[in-house]
Amino acid sequence: MTARQQPAANRRALPAAAIFLILFASLWLVHLPVLGLPYFWDEAGYFIPAARDILLTGDLIPHSTLSNAHPPLVMLWLAACWKLVAYTPVVTRTAMLLVAAFGFTALWLLARRVANAQVATATVTLTALSPVIYSQSAMAQLDIAAFALVLWTLYAYLCERRWMAICFAALAAVAKETTVAVTLTLAAVDLLCWLLGRCKPGLAPEGGALTLRQAQGRLRGTVLPGTLAERYELPRRTLAQCLAWLLALLPLVAWYAYHFHRTGHVFGNPDYLRYNVGSTVTPLRIALSFLLRIWHVAGYMNLFVLTAAAPLLLWDSRRGGRPANAGGAPPIAAKVRVLLLLVVLAQVAEFSIVGGALLARYMVAAIPLVILLSVDLIRRYAPEWTWWIAGCAAAFVVALFFNPPWFISPEDNLTWVHFVEMHQQAARYVERHYPDQRILTAWSASDELNRPFLGYTTRPLTVVRIENFSAEEILRAAQQPDSFDAVVAFSTKFEPPRSFFRIPNSTEIMTRYYDFHQDLPAAAIAHILHGRVVWQASSPGEWIAVIEIDKIRLAKR
Predict the structure, then answer these.
(1) 401, 436, 455 — which closes off a domain?
(2) Average pLDDT in the chain
(3) How many domains does the chain have?
(4) Are 37 and 19 in contact (CB under 8 A)?
(5) What's the pTM?
(6) How far is CA 64 from the centre of its chain?
(7) Residue 495 and residue 219: Cα distance in Å, rounded?
(8) Which of 27, 56, 293, 454 is the most exposed place for a label (fewest CB within 10 A)?
């Protein structure tokens, strides 16, 4: 589908290279306080070890962690940056900000093409302030690369640069495999255009009679010549052009073939596959996940302030008979709006079926499209639309710093910063006081204490691993008191101080379908394991504690 011709003002705008430099400098400055922080959660658990393995050995298959069969493009990018500069968190996070700036450049160009420069600026600003995307922009994970390459794919597609779009789709697939949903959506749209291009409007099907509406249209002379694609101003497609999208899948297929050759598994280790696919395909879980994914793209982290305002303004304007704002560019073309909504829904549907954890970051390639469509509606129907955008931006900033009264993932706003800082302090305390002792803890602290290259300790400490700090796990550990000497306990799930919107049986549903568990408080863990809390720290919704076991305390005497 081709967007409208750009206005003359758009053609005089800054070139893409200048936009990229401005965006990168802005992103780097607003992320400056977090650039030196050690790695968080999945960064520490998979992506940094996998990239480091490439740096040290050149092997695309990680050996310091179990392979999840994620395509290697992001890890290759990080290894190259470390090779050229240095292996430090600042270099890592700057490298990811370069990727984010690349994606924001595509978003600005895309929004300018389908709307105008004002809409593009507002869309990029709101997207950059969106808490989930702000946090992911500096994280060494796959999602911000998917965000960037999907947006470039869409921009090239709307510019009718087919082979460029296919190349970006291929890169997106080897950055994160789940982007194939976007590629297949664009292929399906092209296939529909091809089918409509073969259908003649107003003509009876072969061997059939005209319908009453078709006959009336012919009598009135309102049936237009040509195909349905021409009638609705859809681009003409050939079958070869539709099938060309399959070329974008070849690099991903080649990666899986190579992974199978090296490991004997196509889609990663069996536990990973079972958690992310095998255990997720049940009707109730898919339905619940679909609703939660809609929330992630349309309401999460104060996004509802924007997405609710847009249709309300449209409804109010039409109810009052007021026309849309005059003097601006025309609205985004209907066929482009439909395309963008299809891309969003494809990702919502995909992540309702796959993905063991309901992480909001999986939707970062869909969120900017929702923001773009909402900004376009507000521009058309709000009396002082720039003030509405400013209000939405303020709501996003509030969500970035303050947690809502329900469960979130710490990486969805700046809560992850508090998590990392507390774990840094605990690791230093343990390294100073228990350097040669066995430390009972759960992931991700087990990797933080055992892998100095993650930035938490200066030497590897001996760890004894448990799954979490639920009552079952702690009681099981208490049966083997001689296997550990101290404990680093922490909240493995964000726990809101006050939880509203409690749904009946929600705990049972979350436990059954989403691996939910309740961590015991530090005092209860110390009591069960016959120890005492010697150090602890907390922030809203999170805590961490070091527990000294009685035998260590007696030995010190």
Answers:
(1) 401
(2) 86
(3) 2
(4) no
(5) 0.89
(6) 25
(7) 68
(8) 56
